[in-house]
Fold this sequence. Notes:
The protein is an alpha+beta fold. The protein has three domains: 27-174, no CATH class; 295-435, Immunoglobulin-like, CATH 2.60.40; 437-697 and 738-766, no CATH class. It is built from 18 helices and 29 strands. This is GRPD C-terminal domain-containing protein.
Amino acid sequence: xxETTNLxxxxxxxxxxxxxxxxxxxxxxxxRRNIGFLRTVNESLWLHETPTILEAxxxxxxxxxxxxxxxxxxxxxxxxxxxxxDVEWIWFCHTLNPVSYRQYCESRxxxxxxxxxxxxxxxxxxxxxxxxxxxxxxxPSESFENEVDSDSSQDPIFVNEDIxxxxxxxxxxxxxxxEPYMSEIVYLIAARERYKxxxxxxxxxxxxxxxxxxxxxxxxxxxxxxxYPTVYAxxxxxxxxxxxxxxxxxxxxxxxxxxxxxxxxxxxxxQPYEKAGGGLGMEFNGVASVKPPVYWKVSDTDVNTKYKSMxxxxxxEVCTFLKLKSRMKATQEETKRDFLxxxxxxxxxxxKLDKPISNVSCDLWQKAxxxxxxxxxxxxxxxxxxxxxxxxxxxKLQGATGFHWNDLLRAPSLTMERRIEQIRVAVSITPPxxxxxxxxxVPDRVTDDSGAMISDVILRLNRYRPQEGRWLSRTVLDHAGxxxxxxxxxxxxxxxxxxxxxxxxxxxxxxxxxxxxxxWSYVAGSIGRxxxxxxxxxxxxxxxxxxxxxxxxxxxxxxxxxxESSTSTSGMTFxxxxxxxxxxxxTLLKGRKxxxxxxxxxxxxKEQGNRNREERVEDEDEDDEDKEGFMTLIRFTEDNPNxxxxxxxxxxxxxxxLMPEEDAVFVLLLCMSILRSVSETKKQDVGSLxxxxxxxxxxxxxRDWGSAILHPSSMPSSIITSPYIQPWYWNAKAVMxxxxxxxxxxxxxSTYSAAEGSDKLYKTGIITT
Length: 769
């Protein structure tokens, strides 16, 4: 049986103010503000142009620091003013080197210059405007804004080279703290607790390690502390020399130093040093760690909240650590057949990750699994099992314990420890944050003009009034298998009733695509009516000399498709333009681009020792766009002039992943329009549009396609090829294939009733013969 015990004699939460230093600034608010500030800096491309940087450093050195010095009284709180944005960036970078900053302040002003702790937006605005008034009064000839023209030649500016070096070093600082969960209050509170524990360990073992390596969450808090120099100097006045042993933001460390830090932490707190959201992301021996397999960035808005049928998807990072009780060391021979199995509480019931007990240490905590899980999985289960003998298969359950996300969110440092027999298990998580949407279209029945399925049931309910029109239908399912949209494609006219059918084809320009929001209203079994609310349409336009296919969307966008050959899509080009808005522009690129590029994990991990090897090895099938059907949607805005990938779609499989700021209906219209156009051009049913029946889906939760993704560092060679623990687009065909029939490559032989129409009608309606 499982057992929950308090195995530590001293925990992080038990450290009192007497044991460690008192921190004189609200680190949670400071860190949260710093992350937002760094994000703005990262997006402000103008700020990083050389003339702008040089001018900003001059303004900081010659204008701002003398100004703030005159207003600063030694021993008092820093004046409540904030400088211009460019100057604040220089100031921030300079404070991250406390030795250099202190020497600069004392040599020039004979005192250390502090920064005011302002975390309220209204107070920040007031402090900024107050600074603007003082600036204008004291320096009337100096513009408050950085007005240097980066495009024109400027007179040489002589700047402080030490400050310039610090600014250049921090150019990509946001990349270290860009994970969306890092702005969550519960994460920051846990990080503050671990930072205080890190300082306590530093006090206790300052002579026990030559270099202390901070985990990423501790590094975030240390950075927040550093950015308030007078507070930092006062808080750590008795530890100034010890802090010099802490590896900085961009240090390259040795594996030995990492192991020493881990051992000291475990000696102090008897818990894993690494945790979810608190990894060691620095370079080791000059080699960066393997990047995570999911693209998980902050989204300002979710434009899909207007669709009530769409439920946001939330992800969290999970780390599981194991350690044996010391007395098990003598019984290793007896536990050779024992192993731990990880499963999810809900969803992905086929997921079984095994870890032999013989590989687990009794000296140090070892990371067993590193995953990314949807919050809907609820938690994970760990089972201790014993393999059967040589004459029979299977395993016997020895004990089990569970970790639920809601319990972990309330746990100190977002970490819980439990025991299964003599095995100690520690699980840590990050707060769940919104992740990209996952949508797929599955075949469904033929419908009439009203949206009702062609069926005797509907005919009877309509008192045998003929059903008019023929529309192919696709049901859109989200990551949890919920129906959120119904896509309908008009292919024919005419009517149907018992004993009589007069189908007719319609002109190309009348073969519209419409998307209705919501789920089917079922009246008998799988027979029903589509939802009434139409939220998007795509209307085909008459081809021109510039393109072979064109579509006008209800969103105001126009899609034009051209190709070199009607027998291949390799030469296909796409043009997107919006006729009603100039706020952004769009580009469609063939293949999996930017963050969706597929890396060869084996090669990447094998070549970790080669610093110069930074390229990503593409899958061999990436070059064969005719087979893949992947498209990456790039959106250019004022905030992202270089473009940002907001969606990945596969028009052949009708599957898509999209960021919250991208419109789901627009991406659905893109998918369906491309598939229709390619089918029309190639005169083939390339996307199985002729399937006019609902196919049996995998049982809900049996094979989820995003509920649990394993980090590459946790992928043993025996399961690295499993598609269901990797991002869906790494092996889309395998993930999207039906459990019984792979209709993507082998459409099932079916006989359709006269009511549903013969293949001839749909081939005429879809494909020009």
